[in-house]
Amino acid sequence: MTDRSAPPPRALALLVLLTLLWGTNWPLFKVALAELSVWSFRTLVVIIASAALFAVAKLRGEQLAVPRRLWWPMLAASLGNITIWNVATALAVIYLPSGQASILAYTMPLWLAPLSAIFLGQRFTVRMLLAVILGVAAVTLLMIPNFGAYANAPLGLVAGLSAGLAWAVGTVINKRTDWAGLGLALTAWQMLLCLPPMVLGFLLLDGAWPEPSLLVITVSVYIALVPMAIGTSTWFALVRLLPAQVAGLSSVAIPVVAVIAGVLIFKEPMGPMQIAALACTVAALWLALVPPRATAPDRA
What is the pTM for the complete model shown? Predict the structure, then answer.
């Protein structure tokens, strides 16, 4: 995809899918974390998601072995994309409403823009710069009504921002690494590599497995299989198909969906700021995804 080319239809379809999967996922965290700790919840979800991904990759006959040269970038990408992200977002939802927490985590495009310019050599066109500014405006508008909540929950604030930064770093690593044909196995291995610190955190901080209700078990399994396994695989595919800056900006729509889902499920507030943020998000996505019209040649 060049500055003037439209994104492939597959990328647009994946973007819509990802927005729905991850946007509606955030309110479900509240349900699961009502009975599970951060560590027990994330341990359960990662085990199910990684097992499902390895099983599907094996059934599809995909390559599972990781070349030796790729283990360090794999570990680093897993740390940013999966480990820090999962722990930090779960912590943020404990201290903040789901919609407010998602806003902080999806500051990722704001971190990714300078990182992609520095480490990937992706230049800023005027159009992309305007898209980033509108993305910043959307996130800022969503944050303004929540400044009081952030001040009262500094750990939630730090956790949410850390998740966004870690995700941006992991995305840069994914984008700049030649993964030697790894498909679903790339997602599966990054999931599996984050399991040891999850289990260690569970053993040190929890120690005993809780007895969740059937509802919480069902929600946790859904989160593992759909937003976690399918959603993360979808995101990795988007990163391969689109420039990093465009892929990052495409995720700005997700917190808007999360806020709307929080309104519908938990009656969280939505007012003019959220509506204005939605407008900025639509404009940012249009600038990032819709190519400019080619200038008509002069006629002699």
Answer: 0.82
Contact between residue 188 and residue 50 where contact means Cβ atoms under 8 Å apart:
yes
Using left for φ > 0, alpha for ψ between -120 and 50, and beta otherwise, residue 269 falls in: beta
Beta carbons of 4 and 294 less than 8 angstroms apart? yes
Terminal-residue alpha carbon distance, the chain: 32
Q: What is the mean pLDDT of residues 179-190?
A: 92
* The dihedral formed by the CA atoms of 83, 109, 9 and 182, expressed in degrees to the nearest 10: -30
What is the domain count for the chain? Answer: 1
Q: CA-based angle 195:197:200, to the nearest 5?
A: 105
**Whose CA is closest to 104, among 183, 25, 161?**
161
Residue found under tokens 């990759």: 57
**The dihedral sign for the CA sequence 232, 32, 91, 205:** negative
pLDDT in tens, 198-250: 888 888 888 788 889 999 999 999 999 999 999 999 999 998 888 887 888 77
Residue 180 lies in a domain: yes
- Cα–Cα distance, 162 to 167 (Å, whole number): 8
Residue type for position 68 = R
- Give the structural domain span for 97: 9-289
